[in-house]
Amino acid sequence: MSGRQCITRSILFSPTRHAEPVRPCLSQLRAQVWQPHLPAISQTQIRCYAGPPSRPGPLVFGVGAPGRGPPPRRREQGPRRGRARDNQDDENPDEELGYDRRYTTAQSFEKSGRDRLPRDHEIKDPRIMVLENGQIEGPLAPHFVMSKLNTAEESLRMIQPYFPADKATGKLAQFPVCQIVNRKEEHLREKELKVQEKKKAEEKIKRKDVELSWGISDHDLKTKMKQIGGFLQKGMRVEIVLGKKKRGKKISREDSLSVLTQVRENLEVLGARHVKAESGEVGELVRMTVEKK
């Protein structure tokens, strides 16, 4: 046996070789420690508004163990790039106003001249309170709430602007309140409201009925049309009924058609429009409902 083989054999089978504990590799320890977890969500939360699970810091082996020395110092990091969006969520109070200018207040809304409060990505406030199903959450960042919504069916609507703090009365500031709205349900509600408003408007409009016979004379027809014109000027809705006169002489179809033509021409002169389509048969019974254009 050569000298090199003797040295190698003595090292391999030396009784002191296994005196030190076997150190597991970094991947084995990280597999044991790295257990992804979910944050605890309270029962009052409607959606999972909690952030993503935090990653554990770097593993430091042998901290405080004899002969290991002090733990390695972490290098100080400068400002991280690509964090402009998070910085947008930080409030930057204005020295003159005392609060962040990005908040939508009642005064700023009136100056804007808009007919509604901002919604969805129009909301630029740093923090908002979210109302859904009668429960409120927050304060939260608007872009974070939008990331949790199904924008095809849901919308974020501001229903109350920001109220700054009042030092004189000691009243604290109130974050703007936004509500999550289902687009389909909102469309159905608006449609029902329009139908109800239309019915109410029709009920408020006064209605007048005017009866004409197919055998009416030219003088009487002019008087009736003048009366109809007065009703239209007052904003009334007029229903005109042309029919046969009881115990009257029989009127030919040509004479009946002539009367109907005169009525139509006079209505055009008066500036009337048909609310309902004209119905009935010439010489029998014809109904038309008109109002002022």
Automatic annotation (TrEMBL):
InterPro entries: T_IF-3_C_sf, Translation_initiation_fac_3. Residues 181-211 form a coiled coil. GO terms for cellular component: mitochondrion. SUPFAM superfamilies: Translation initiation factor IF3, C-terminal domain. Keywords: Coiled coil, Initiation factor, Protein biosynthesis. Signal peptide: none annotated. GO terms for biological process: mitochondrial translational initiation; ribosome disassembly. Residues 88-97 have a biased composition (Acidic residues). It comes from the Eukaryota. GO terms for molecular function: ribosome binding; translation initiation factor activity. Residues 73-87, 111-121 have a biased composition (Basic and acidic residues). Residues 57-121 are annotated as: Disordered. Belongs to the IF-3 family. This is Translation initiation factor 3 C-terminal domain-containing protein. It comes from Bionectria ochroleuca (Gliocladium roseum).
